[in-house]
Design goal:
It contains nine helices and 18 strands. By secondary structure, it is an alpha+beta fold. A hairpin with a 5-residue loop joins strand 1 and strand 2. Bound molecules: adenosine-5'-diphosphate and magnesium ion.
């Protein structure tokens, strides 16, 4: 079932920036990520869903009902932002209880739900803390808990982990995914971090300057990028200029390096760099520098300046305008 439908939606600011003719459907229980560089319109879309911005055209439906004429508090959505989510003068418990009080949930029931939710986000025992007494990661757990307590039909998350350290960010990502699948929540997630999008999503929507450039599963987007823009934005990619304005795109893990010549492209080893669990080699060729990921073993057998030949496994071809 389609939980969220965005139909020909346009939202333009006075400056002319914004998003135009957006079409997007999210199924019940699906986590869909809007991915793109800063300024491409991700937040604008999320805010129109949450009701913090009015649309100029088109429609937004949740469970089949148009919601564009409802104020934010009447919409079946709740939103978590990058930062400043919690009321700083209120303890964690009061932050969580506020929305439930507004909904006239009885006191005992409020306490029960909050206690369950605190366990779910692994924050039991922190009820009496103020936001300022917690780490950024802990505050975002509480912000997500508060959003979930309102039992939204669609949860909106706008770069919720972007301000956190890499390690915490990864952990939060895994926990969010677990909670989301366990509770079967429908989520629209926004990030500019392609790795986060790939790791977290059922489906990724890649945006470019106010438009949707491509949408698909993480595998689809990674292995079958339909434009040079997507190929460039997602993961690492070598672009090799070919005759007739053709560009060959090959990922470093699909470049096989062997000694000698006679493969798809010959060249000379330029650098070999140890990057933890893999090694990166760059090779000088007539079509530019090519990056390859190689094994530790392989790295031992090559040195700078060696003549090598490259064979390309998976590749894509684009024509430049
Ligand atoms: N309140 C606003 N007034 C005018 N322009 C805005 C406003 N908010 C965002 N924009 C512009 O709209 C475009 C999309 O912004 P935004 O949705 O915030 O992008 P993202 O979240 O992908 O970084 C950008 O060009 C931005 O400068
Ligand atoms: Mg944004």
């Amino acid at each position: 079932m389609s939980m969220l439908e965005i139909i020909n939606m346009t939202k333009l600011y006075k400056t002319g920036d914004g998003v135009k003719d957006i079409n997007l459907t999210i199924r019940e229980g699906e986590l869909v990520t809007l991915l793109g560089p800063s300024g491409c319109g991700k937040t604008t879309i999320l805010r129109t869903i949450g009701g913090f911005l009015n649309v100029d055209g088109g429609d937004i439906r949740i469970a089949g009902q148009s919601i564009i004429h409802l104020p934010p508090e009447k919409r079946p959505t709740s939103m978590v932002f990058q930062a400043y989510n919690l009321w700083p003068h209120m303890r964690v418990f009061d932050n969580l209880e506020f929305g439930l009080k507004l909904r006239k949930i009885p006191r005992a029931e409020r306490a029960r739900r909050i206690s369950e939710m605190m366990a779910l986000v692994k924050m039991s025992g922190m009820e009496k803390k103020y936001p300022g007494q917690m780490s950024g990661g802990q505050q975002q757990r509480i912000a997500i808990a508060r959003a979930l307590l309102l039992e939204p039909q669609v949860l909106l998350l706008d770069e919720p982990f972007s301000a956190l350290d890499a390690k915490i960010r990864q952990q939060m990502r895994e926990e969010l995914r677990k909670i989301q699948t366990d509770l079967n929540i429908t989520v629209a997630f926004v990030t500019h971090d392609q790795e986060e999008a790939m790791a977290l999503s059922d489906r990724v929507v890649v945006m470019n300057k106010g438009n949707i450039e491509q949408e698909g599963s993480p595998q689809d987007i990674y292995h079958r990028p339909q434009s040079r823009y997507v190929a460039d934005f997602i993961g690492e990619m070598n672009f090799l200029q070919m005759p007739d304005k053709k560009v060959l795109a090959v990922r470093p893990e699909h470049v096989e390096v062997s000694p000698g010549s006679g493969g798809d492209l010959d060249g000379y080893v330029r650098t070999i760099m140890m990057l933890g669990h893999y090694i990166e080699m760059t090779v000088d060729t007539d079509h530019g520098i090519v990056k390859a990921f190689i094994s530790d073993e392989q790295a031992q057998s090559f040195g700078r300046g060696d003549a090598v030949t490259l064979r390309f496994g998976r590749k894509q071809e684009y024509t430049t305008p």
